[in-house]
Amino acid sequence: MTLGNRAFEFFLRSARTRLEAEEGADFAAAIAVAAREEYTRILPTVPDIGGSANVFQPVMLVNGWIAALHRALSARGRPASQTIAICHAVVDGWLRKIPTFLLRLVGRLTFSGPARAFFESQASRSRERGYPADFVWSVENGPDGEFSLVFDECAVNKWYDANDLHDLKPYCNFFDVTYSRLMGMGVNANDTIGLGCERCALRFKHGRDTQIPSMLGPIIRDAESSN
Question: Which residues are bridge partners to 149 per DSSP?
């Protein structure tokens, strides 16, 4: 089994545990089987956007996991919001196993000079458009230390469109909200291509409250009430 497949199985075990608690063992087992089948079909369509040279290549792989789970659930009449609720709960659970001080330290280091230089380099590379399926983005420095990643093209949404996964698009930035809340990164992800905006802007500011988009509010509240 490859590293990528092992990672998917790890994700799927966590998702199955969540589903078992909500809908019973039989339903969760059936979804797990279906999601594995979907992942086998989906994986070849996940685009190469530069491999290990692109910081966002893992984002595309993880979206393959999300899409596989979503197709398994949607085939049984379940909405995209349930897929995202499960994925949020899984990621939130993983992150909460990490000591809070370490999460906060990583969040703070993201605003450091070397980190910003790294993101600038990655953004510059994206604007060369060497990979048609890639993100195209830039870094903007705003007032009072705000630090923004602004995407003119989103690889995730392009891939969703190409694979008839349109109902996942409004939730494409759920992960940014999930980790920002725990790492003190204060993201505002209300402007996204998935919501119909011209560009996607992830606006970070260390120490401020993370702004939770309206479609994620019920998902996050439900996850917190069940913990």
Answer: 139, 202
123 and 138 in contact (C-beta within 8 Å)?
yes
Q: Give which of 140, 162, 168 is closest to 152, Cα–Cα.
A: 140
**How many domains does the structure of the chain reveal?**
1
Query: Tokens 């789970």 sit at which residue?
Result: 69
Residue with tokens 């199955």: 16
Cβ contacts of 116 within 8 Å, gap of 6 or more: 139, 147
Domain containing 111 equals 3-226
pLDDT in tens, 30-66: 999 999 999 999 999 999 999 999 999 999 999 999 9
CATH code, domain carrying 58 = 3.90.1520
Backbone angles phi, psi at 101, to 5 degrees: -65, -35
Does the predicted TM-score (pTM) go above 0.90?
yes
Tokens 């979206």 found at: 63
Q: Is 3 exposed, middle or buried, given 0-12, 13-18 or 19+ CB atoms closer than 10 A?
A: exposed
